[in-house]
Structure formats: structure tokens, C-alpha cells
UniProtKB/TrEMBL annotation:
It is an enzyme of class 7 (translocase). InterPro entries: AlaDH/PNT_N, AlaDH/PNT_NAD(H)-bd, NAD(P)-bd_dom_sf. Residues 17-147 form the Alanine dehydrogenase/pyridine nucleotide transhydrogenase N-terminal domain. The gene is pntAA. This is NAD(P) transhydrogenase subunit alpha part 1.
Length: 372
């Protein structure tokens, strides 16, 4: 019976398009050759724009060898992207298409409005709920792992001091001390990476329940007596009294570290200011701050998003889009996230997203019916 049913429409297939990313400095691609066979098993074929994988060092030939075709991705049933589409790109979409990608629904409402007006059903990767069965689709976490790793390497590169303790004929050099502010996925990866490089690590977060995770990585926990646990694994915004208490306590603590890496974000809001100008001034000359929250304004008062500056003999880096600096692995991880989401929508060549499913319902930011 199942075999006969599979013959009802042998040509039925869903097409998934992968455009070339056009954001300046972006090297990732939404799908990679390794996942194409898995999508084919669901009855989906992949169409890749020529050169889409070049930034991630994936030539078109690798895509075609995996079963994809090179062509127009915007004509497909589903379009998978990394970054929010531009107005021009949205103009290429038709009313019955599905779009998947980082769409910044909280910070770029105009993009969402344009997609809604175009009648596109759009799924935002950053809106996928953080529940157990959606872990394989959690692109925020996969890319945060890459960012946390790269942030520590950037700190080590700009530091004037060794990370590990060195014992030499000329004497012993003490290990660097590193403080990570905000220990979500990126922060935990930063702590682990700094520890591997030999630094003495300390973590801080306004959610005290993550203290055990910090200690499990061999790091110390900086306890300031503030609890601001929020929904979905994120921190809530602090009250004015809590913020003042935190600011003074952090100002006192930060001056004792050689490296400070900040990752603190509140969804849809400007990044909280954790490192004051006074704290920077109190740090030892040659110290380094890596502010990973630059795209949301930065956690350091002296941060210039996207720039590297020196203030009071302290180097302050605010790199944007850190995952793009490791395009091969970042693309591979992201492609797995997108594929896992597509597997909820595509069965036997039929594209039918069930919006009663919690994962799809919460990640869907526009629906085709809304624009009808």
C-alpha cells in the first residue's frame, strides 16, 4: 500500500533555492553539499546561485556533485538565506514562497513588513524556541559557538601578554586572567577556549543558575548578588537599582583582568552597558576587551561597533559577524540547522508547514494568508 502511494506522483518535488549572500563581509552560505542528500531523501531538490559557496571555499562543482543544480534560487518553492533579504531581493519573491533565514524580526520590522506585504511565508531562525526537540535547529546557538571561539582568538592576537603560564630559563610568566561577561552559548565557548589557551578564567552572568556551567569548564564564578533570569534562557532587563549595583561591582572587578570578553544581549533591545569608561581606565595597560555585542550598540561604553580602538592603553575590539570569519564550519553548522527545520516542512516532496507545530508557529513571522 505504501509503495503504491509513493507512485501516485513520482515527479512531485520541492525546490529549495540558495542565493549568494550580498551583505558586505559575509562569507557564509545557507546550505552546503553535505546536507543536499538528506534533503533529497525528503523529496527536495536544491538550486544554488552560481558562486554562492565561494566565500566558504565551496566551488559550484561540489554542489553539483552532491546533486544540486546551478540556477536561479529565487524561483524555488523555498529560499534559504543567512541574512535578512534586501528590498530588491524581496521583490524577487512571489506570494506562495517560503523564506528561511536570520530575519531580525525584532530589530528590522520594516523587512518583516515587506515580506508580509509580498505574501511570503517567512521563518526566522532566531525565533526558533529553545526547547529540547528544536536543538538541532538552534542556529543562534550554533553560530554563537563559532563567535565565542573567534572572540578569544582575537583577544589573544591583540594581547600584549601570554595566555598560558610559561616556565622558562629566564623565569616564570604568570597566566593571563580572562573575564567573560554573559555566559550563554557564546560566553561558555569563550570560557572553554580561553581555558584551553591557558588563561585563568572567570565568568559572570545575571542568571545565577548558570554558575555550575561556568565551574564545569574550570572557570571561577563572579558572584555580584544579582538575579535577572528571564524567559527562554535569556536575561531580563535589570531595574535601575540593579543596574547601578551591577555597574559599581563590575567596575571594581574588571580592573583586575587582562582580558574581558562581553556577550550580553537582551533580545530586541540595545545591549546593556557593563564596562564603563572608568573601568577601562582602571585596567592595566596592554589589556584587551572584545565586545561581542557591537551590533546592538556594545556592552562597553567606549566601544565603536565594527572597529578596533585603543583607549587608556587598552585595546577595545568590536568585531561584527564573527561567524563569517570561520565560513566553512559556520556554514556547515547553519546548513544543518536549516535542514532540520526543512524536515518539519517537507515530506515526500510535499511542502506543507504545519503551523500548529510549536517550532514552526513560533518561528513563523509572516504567513502567505496575511498578505492575501
Amino acid at each position: 500500500m505504501g509503495e503504491e502511494a509513493g507512485r501516485d506522483d513520482p515527479q512531485k518535488t520541492v525546490t529549495v533555492g540558495v542565493p549568494k549572500e550580498i551583505r558586505a563581509g559575509e562569507r557564509r552560505v545557507a546550505l552546503v553539499p553535505k546536507v543536499i542528500g538528506k534533503l533529497g531523501g525528503r523529496g527536495a531538490t536544491v538550486v544554488v546561485e552560481a558562486g554562492a559557496g565561494a566565500g566558504a571555499l565551496i566551488p559550484d562543482e561540489e554542489f553539483t556533485q552532491a546533486g544540486a543544480t546551478i540556477g536561479d534560487p529565487w524561483a524555488c518553492d523555498v529560499v534559504a538565506v543567512v541574512n535578512p533579504p534586501t528590498t530588491e531581493q524581496i521583490g524577487k519573491l512571489r506570494r506562495d514562497q517560503v523564506l528561511i533565514g536570520f530575519l531580525s524580526p525584532l530589530t528590522h520590522p520594516d523587512t518583516v513588513a515587506q515580506l508580509r506585504d509580498a505574501g511570503v511565508t517567512a521563518f526566522a531562525m532566531e525565533s526558533i524556541p529553545r526547547i529540547s526537540r528544536a536543538q538541532g535547529m538552534d542556529a543562534l546557538s550554533s553560530q554563537a559557538n563559532v563567535a565565542g571561539y573567534k572572540a578569544v582568538l582575537a583577544a589573544a592576537e591583540h594581547s600584549t601578554r601570554f595566555f598560558p603560564m610559561l616556565t622558562t630559563a629566564a623565569g616564570t610568566v604568570k597566566p593571563a586572567t580572562a573575564l567573560v561577561l554573559g555566559v550563554g552559548v557564546a560566553g561558555l565557548q569563550a570560557l572553554a577556549t580561553a581555558k584551553r589557551l591557558g588563561a585563568r578564567t572567570t565568568g559572570y552572568d545575571v542568571r545565577p543558575e548558570v554558575a555550575d556551567q561556568v565551574r564545569s569548564l574550570g572557570a571561577q564564578w563572579l558572584d555580584l548578588g544579582i538575579d535577572a533570569a528571564g524567559e527562554g534562557g535569556y536575561a531580563r532587563e535589570l531595574t535601575d537599582e540593579e543596574r547601578a549595583k551591577q555597574q559599581q561591582a563590575l567596575e571594581d572587578a574588571i580592573t583586575g583582568f587582562d582580558v574581558v570578553i562581553t556577550t550580553a544581549l537582551v533580545p530586541g533591545r540595545a545591549a546593556p552597558r557593563l564596562v564603563s569608561a572608568a573601568a577601562v581606565q582602571g585596567m592595566r595597560p596592554g589589556s584587551v576587551i572584545v565586545d561581542m555585542a557591537g551590533e546592538a550598540g556594545g556592552n562597553c561604553e567606549l566601544t565603536e561597533p565594527g572597529e578596533t580602538v585603543v583607549r587608556h592603553d587598552v585595546t577595545i575590539l568590536s568585531p561584527l559577524n564573527l561567524p563569517s570569519g570561520m565560513p566553512e564550519h559556520a556554514s556547515e553548522l547553519y546548513a544543518r540547522n536549516v535542514t532540520a527545520l526543512l524536515e518539519l516542512m517537507v515530506t515526500d516532496g510535499d511542502l506543507s508547514p504545519d503551523l500548529s507545530d510549536e517550532v514552526l508557529a513560533k518561528s513563523c513571522v509572516t504567513r502567505e494568508e496575511e498578505g492575501s
